[in-house]
Amino acid sequence: MLLDVMSHDADDKAALDRFGDVTAETKEALACFVALLRKWQGTHNLVARSTLDHVWTRHVADSLQLLKHAPDFRHWIDLGTGAGFPGLVVAIACRDEPNRRFTLVEANSKKAAFLRAAARESGARVSVVAQRIEEHAPMAEPGDIVSARALAPLPELLRLGAPYLTADGVMLFLKGQDFVQELGRASKSWDFDVLDSASVTDPGGRVLTIRNLRAKRPQQ
Fold it and tell me: Does a structural domain hold residue 106?
């Protein structure tokens, strides 16, 4: 079944070969997820149609690479998960690790319904929160990791993500070519340590690892 499902994507093997530690069981679960994504896409428009032929590289592998940058964690919070990227994909990869749990925050009710269905199909242990990020923040249990992909510019991401992060937590963001300008704008309101790493799926993309986030005090 796995090969039948994955044969629809010309880039599937190249994408997954970047991650030699992905087990056959995880690949099977990811294939089920991709099959469900294709099924729902026809009526719910979950991702840009132009990206479907490269879903394994553009979405799945792009999300999986965050695990290489993640410290040890117990609670991972993904903001604006959309159709599952990156939070649900990472949760699928960690589904055999019972000490780790995931919270996916997605305000769009149709996408939240898809996330719940995909979690059931893939066996991922996630909690899906169908609320706006700002509305859920006061009730949220902080996470060791807060992630987001294609959600907002960095200054806004830091504002949205800060209430979800533990004091020594880490933020992981997938960003594009404008990341330097975004870092400059963010540094006007925040102090933080950042490590930027090259994306393995996007020649112009970066993975930002942010630690020690602190809001700057307004100047008197």
Answer: yes
